[in-house]
């Protein structure tokens, strides 16, 4: 019978072996971690060509390797830049675009004449319902960045009377003022926001503009920022943006939730209010942070991204459980890549009001197309 082989390991050799193995294991873990990060943090990686083409039998194919696209005109300056970069990395895929408004984003997909739909905001509930009624599932919204300060206007946010001593507010606090049902209690008095003195004992008078203007009022989107909960019965609904701002200018205890607004200059093509100079000294924009102790945004073009900034992106028709056409998946990856995020974050696009995705967001968006 063969004798068993015995291996003797001295304490010294055991220690060296253990350390060597531990070092190797640590190196492997670091490599795996780096690889995982590279796979998910797509915004740090340049797009690499997939050499894709557009199928000839798709309803949106209007010419050889040319897809028809319908979407929002606000995004034209951005997508002009993106199209130039796309042509450099995927020269065999072309687009014919009609960019006239965000409503075209979903409408084009429902008609099946559009390959994807650029959109300068989030989807509205009626739009998602319209799509779902047609296909039986919701559209896939791929967020690629933000439109925080269009045309140099202040971000969507909170305005109060200039005499109010409040210095800042969080997104959760704003949600607890304008909506109800958070589970943590509604905010009804200024003292709950840290305001002291005579202001602290007085109830907050919240104002919101009714959704009567397709250009300015985006009530559903504002509510979505607050978790989709219903507005509180304490809210006073006003017919126009001018009426809302004027109310806060006259009400020391008022607070208004406003879409993009500029109290310095007339918004070209949007409003010609005659009393803008009067409003300016009587109201103020309240800086907001995502959470207590977080970075405050003053809503300006040069400040940090505002928590209520509107998303920008594209809608696509992805059938649940089925892969996207290779060219469309490649285009989605392109939009999340360093190439595009650098363009969105460039000084030129920053002046228009666009902002790139926040750290970690691209990985979440990437899951939508996997």
Automatic annotation (TrEMBL):
Signal peptide, first to last residue: 1-38
InterPro entries referenced in this protein's UniProt entry, alphabetically: PBP_domain, Phosphate_ABC_transporter
Keywords: Signal
Record-linked Pfam families: PBP_like_2
Boundaries of every PBP domain copy: 157-338
Protein name (Swiss-Prot/TrEMBL): PBP domain-containing protein
């Amino acid at each position: 019978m063969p004798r068993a082989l015995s291996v003797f390991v001295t304490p010294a050799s055991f220690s060296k072996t253990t350390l060597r193995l531990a070092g190797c294991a640590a190196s492997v873990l670091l490599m795996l971690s780096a690889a995982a990060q590279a796979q998910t943090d797509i915004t740090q990686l340049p797009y690499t060509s997939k050499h894709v083409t557009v199928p000839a039998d798709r309803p949106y194919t209007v010419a050889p390797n040319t897809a028809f696209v319908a979407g929002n005109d606000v995004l034209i300056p951005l997508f002009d830049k993106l199209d130039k970069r796309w042509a450099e990395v995927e020269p065999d895929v072309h687009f014919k675009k009609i960019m006239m408004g965000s409503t075209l984003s979903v409408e084009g997909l429902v008609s099946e004449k559009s390959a994807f739909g650029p959109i300068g905001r989030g989807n509205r509930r009626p739009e998602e319902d319209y799509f779902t009624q047609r296909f039986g599932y919701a559209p896939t919204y791929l967020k690629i960045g933000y439109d925080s300060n269009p045309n140099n206007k202040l971000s969507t946010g909170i305005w109060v009377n200039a005499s109010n001593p409040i210095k800042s507010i969080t997104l959760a606090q704003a949600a607890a003022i304008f909506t109800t049902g958070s589970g943590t209690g509604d905010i009804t008095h200024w003292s709950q926001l840290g305001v002291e003195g005579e202001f602290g004992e007085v109830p907050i008078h919240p104002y919101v503009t009714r959704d009567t203007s397709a250009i300015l009022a985006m009530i559903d989107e504002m509510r979505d920022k607050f978790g989709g909960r219903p507005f509180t019965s304490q809210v006073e609904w006003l017919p126009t943006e001018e009426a809302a701002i004027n109310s806060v200018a006259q009400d020391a205890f008022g607070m208004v939730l406003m879409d993009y607004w500029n109290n310095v200059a007339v918004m070209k093509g949007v409003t010609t209010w005659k009393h803008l100079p009067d409003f300016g000294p009587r109201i103020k924009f309240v800086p907001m942070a995502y959470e207590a102790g977080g970075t405050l945004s003053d809503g300006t073009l040069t400040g940090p991204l505002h928590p209520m900034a509107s998303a920008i992106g594209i809608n696509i028709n992805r059938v649940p459980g089925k892969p996207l056409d290779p060219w469309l998946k490649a285009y989605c990856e392109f939009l999340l890549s360093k190439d595009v995020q650098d363009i969105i974050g460039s000084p030129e696009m920053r002046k228009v009001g666009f902002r790139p995705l926040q750290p970690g967001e691209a990985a979440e968006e990437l899951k939508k197309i996997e």
